[in-house]
Each structure stands twice: as structure tokens, then as C-alpha cells.
Design a protein that fits this description.
Helices cover 39% and strands 20% of the residues. Helix 2 (41-75) runs antiparallel to helix 3. The protein has five helices and eleven strands, in the order αβααββββββββββαα. The structure holds copper (II) ion.
Amino acid sequence: MKKINFWVLSLSAFIMNNSFALAQQDVAKPMQLGLREPATPQMERIAAFHDDLLMWIITVIVIFVTALLIWVAIKYNAKANPTPSKTTHNVLLEVIWTVVPVVILIVVAVPSFKLLYYLDRTEEPEMTLKVTGYQWYWGYEYQDTEGVSFLSYMIPEDEVDESKGQRRLLSTDNPVVLPIDTNIQILITAADVLHAFTVPAFGIKKDAVPGRMNETWVRIDKPGTYFGQCSEICGKDHSYMPIEIKAVTKDEFEKWLVEAKDKFAENAIPENGQQSNTLQLASYAGAQ
Ligand SMILES: [Cu+2]
């Protein structure tokens, strides 16, 4: 009995611990189905587009086609229907099976374009974050605050400290800190090869292209830690350049900015967007 009690207690402690961590951290759950829980109006609209429109259309089409196949297989097989009809044309039927798919496509296209334009850019950015993809880490520049820029590397597997809420393959040494309830313009580029800046809970997935500046934006609803990963096969350490974003209140963000100015003063990414030679050499040495 004592043994059972022990297991029940430790199991519930584990679940409570985990759900507490999950409430603050946005990570995929084991066996999860469906989209990530939205943390921005962007992702809310993407999820609604998928759940409330596309899912219904797909479901109806699948049921209809399956029923049609079963009906044909039963009613018109060689045994049940030994002398088949020789009909070749049916104007009404042909008009219907042309017009109906066109209508379905229009029904999908209109909200889809609306959503695309909404995700594209914000007319009133309150701050700008520039993201640069490198092999194999990310660089972040807070363009409204001079001197706040840094590189962000994954925490190596053997140094992950779970008691601090760090996660294997997801936590970074320098998480990006962003304020909630703010229109944040995000500029995305790369310095070497193609990368892609992806944060599922924000509904962002944008290519980072060398020599080109892509743009998107977010407005984060609630504080928490959000994770993302590079989503363009960019080389041997493609899977080891995660994105960790801590969303905090505006006040906390202002405080962080002041601290960050001191903290990153020496390691800031130089103006021309290139990293310093020492860092470059260090990363090459790490790659060997
Ligand atoms: Cu990459």
C-alpha cells in the first residue's frame, strides 16, 4: 500500500510539475495532434482558418469520395452489373464537377489571401527586431536600441539544466526577450546560407536569405517562453540552432533592455551585420 501511495504521489507531483512548466513554456507535447496553441493573433487566425474552414471542407470531400467509391464498387462491379451502360457524355454532370471544385477553391482562396496580407506586415510597428541566420546559430539586433545585439547558441546537450527549465535541443544561451502587447516588426536575413526563422506558437515561418531582407511581424498575447527551430536544411548542424523567445511585460522588457546594453556591449554584432572574426573563428573551430 505504501508503495502504491509513493507512486501515486510521485506521479501526481510529476504531472503538476510538468503542467506548471508547460503553462509557462510552449513546447510540443508527446503524442500531440493539431496545431500549437496560439500565442499571437497571427497564429489564432491561422489555426481558425485550418480548424474552422479547411478541416470541414477536407472532411466532407473525403467522406463524399469514399462513399462514391464504395457505391461504385458494390453496384457496378462485373457480377452485379454484367452489361455496363455505354454512356459517354452527360452535360449536367460535367458542368457540376467543374463548377463545384471552382467554387470550393474560391471559398478557400478569399480568406487565404486575407490571411496572407494580414501576416505580411504591420502598418504600425512599435519596435523592430532583426534576425540573422548563421551556420549554425542566430544573431539578434534590437534596432531601436543602439548596442543591443547578440548571438544565440543552443545549450549543448550535456550542459542542459532541467531544474532551470532548460530543454534539450531548444534552450539557448541568449534567449530573445520581447515585450507582450506590442507590434513587433521582424526583419529576417542570413549571412551564409538559407535558413528559416520559425516559431510555431507565433505563426511565423519565414526564409532567411543571404542578401535579402524578409519581413514579418508579431504581437504576443501572453508572457511565456516560446521555442522555434531553423526550418531550412542549412548544413550539418541545422537541427542545433533553436530559437528561444521569452515574452515579458513591457516594464520587464524596458528593464531587460538596460541590463542587456551592459551585458552585450562587448559581444554586440558590428554595424555591417558581420560577426567579429574571433566569433567566426570560434564557430569554424567548433564545426571542425
Ligand atoms: Cu539554419
